[in-house]
Amino acid sequence: MASQSQKTPIAIMIGGGAKLPAIIKAAQKPQSKFYIRLVVSHKKESWGLKFALENQIPAVYWNLPDYRSRMASGDSKARSNYMKDLGWFISQPQYRPKLLVFGGWDLVMDDNFFNFFKCNFGEGYAAINAHPALLPKKGEGDKITLPDGTISPVIKGEQTDVFKAVLAKRLTYFGPTIHFMKPTVYDTGAVIRRKFIRVGDIKTIEDLRAKFMPIEDEIFIEAIDEVISRYLN
């Protein structure tokens, strides 16, 4: 059984918080490699913030409407200040995670944020993200060969849009990817884990989601553990 002092501190960046329960449950296990120091959401009504607090985890709302209002008013530094302020806040001694875990965070983050979290692994920043589609591994280009030999294009976007594309393109497999993050460019970065899920006779987004979510939760935890074991222990 590892004590908290032997575990790696992480911060979770969320939208609504759908992925948070599985990560908290994993963190609470005695054999867990990590514990959660902070949960951050850009959504004021995020269910995940309340859930984190109920589990005695610090949680904060980072005011997105204020940033957008300042941008609309002509403040040319609104975006960079939002990024810098958030990066500075998370990197303070009482939090200072060794790994940022993005699960449902909607904003594209830039150097002003990521420069607080430089490291010597992944894409140079201690940050990983869950994407609701299969992303290419190094050398695969812009097409992914599925287990049955058919080809899938690289699909980007939010979960519902991805699932619509899976059905529209009649793909035989779909699945989640966990990858390292790069500043400014969304849904790119070295793949840590991905999982092929057979579509079968599924014809609705809801049924795809029901099959997808538990598998995404599973490989998300595996990816966190892998990064910690390989680079942070």
Task: Tell me the distance between the termini.
Answer: 16 Å
Count of domain modules? 1
CATH class category label: Alpha Beta
**Sequence stretches where pLDDT stays below 50 over 5 or more residues:** none
The level of helicity is 25-40%
Strand percentage, roughly?
A: 15-25%
CATH architectural name? 3-Layer(aba) Sandwich
Mean pLDDT, as a whole number? 95
Number of strands: 11
Number of helices: 7
GO molecular function, one term: phosphoribosylglycinamide formyltransferase activity
Protein name: phosphoribosylglycinamide formyltransferase 1
GO biological process, one term: 'de novo' IMP biosynthetic process
Keywords: Purine biosynthesis, Transferase
Written account of the structure:
- This protein is α/β, with parallel strands linked by helices and 233 residues long.
- The protein has a single domain (4-132, 176-192, 215-232), classed as Formyl transferase, N-terminal domain (Rossmann fold, 3-Layer(aba) Sandwich), CATH 3.40.50.170.
- It is 34% helix and 20% strand.
- It contains 7 helices and 11 strands.
- The protein has helices at 20-27, 47-54, 64-72, 78-90, 111-114, 159-168, 205-232; strands at 8-14, 34-41, 59-61, 99-103, 127-131, 143-145, 151-153, 173-174, 177-180, 191-194, 197-198.
- The chain has a 7-stranded mixed beta sheet, covered by helices on one side.
- β1, α1 and β2 (34-41) form a beta-alpha-beta unit.
- It is globular.
- The protein starts with 7 loop residues before the first strand and ends with a helix.
